[in-house]
Amino acid sequence: MSVPPIAKATLQAAVINAGSNILAQGITAVRDEKQFQLDLQALLQFTTCAFIVSPMTFLWLEGLESYFPGNSEEKDVKENRSKSKSKDTGSPKLNIKNTIAKIVIDQIIGGAWNTVLFIATMGMLRGMEYEAILEQIRNVRVLAI
To answer: Does the residue 143 lie in any domain?
Structure first.
């Protein structure tokens, strides 16, 4: 039985979130010179957050890929190969314009929505009031490079 890609990606994200949370707790314990004690509640919150947020992120990125394919279509690759008469390996060529468009759109729109979704999900999992979650979202600051 084959596992759907969205389920695989979600499970991978949950494992990565769990691992990163354990690592963060460990780093905090070392930094604060305290004995490591796993905060199971925080671990479960971050892991649960991944199960909620990851499918939406997966669908967002799939949608971007469908509108802005990262590789040239097979037809375009064959046409380019016959025009240039070069020895091509037959692998699709990276569409740089679409790749840049995906990065820009994802960083501006996807990043903003993902941040809001993360804050809202973690707030709900922590039992925060609706107004407190909204206040956290309002207080998000964009870091300029």
So the answer is: no
- Torsion of Cα atoms, 134 then 17 then 104 then 117, to 10°: -20
Tens-place pLDDT, residues 67-106: 999 998 655 445 555 555 545 566 789 999 999 999 999 9
The per-residue pLDDT for 92 is 85
Domain that holds residue 119: 5-138
User: To which residue do tokens 């501006």 refer?
Assistant: 108
Evaluate if pTM is beyond 0.85: no
Judge whether 113 lies within some domain.
yes
DSSP-assigned states of every residue in 24-93: HHHHHHHHTT------HHHHHHHHHHHHHHHHHHHHHHHHHHHHS-SB--HHHHHHHHHHH-----SPPP
Yes or no: say if 17 and 42 are a contact pair by the CB < 8 Å rule: no
How many domains would you assign to the chain?
1
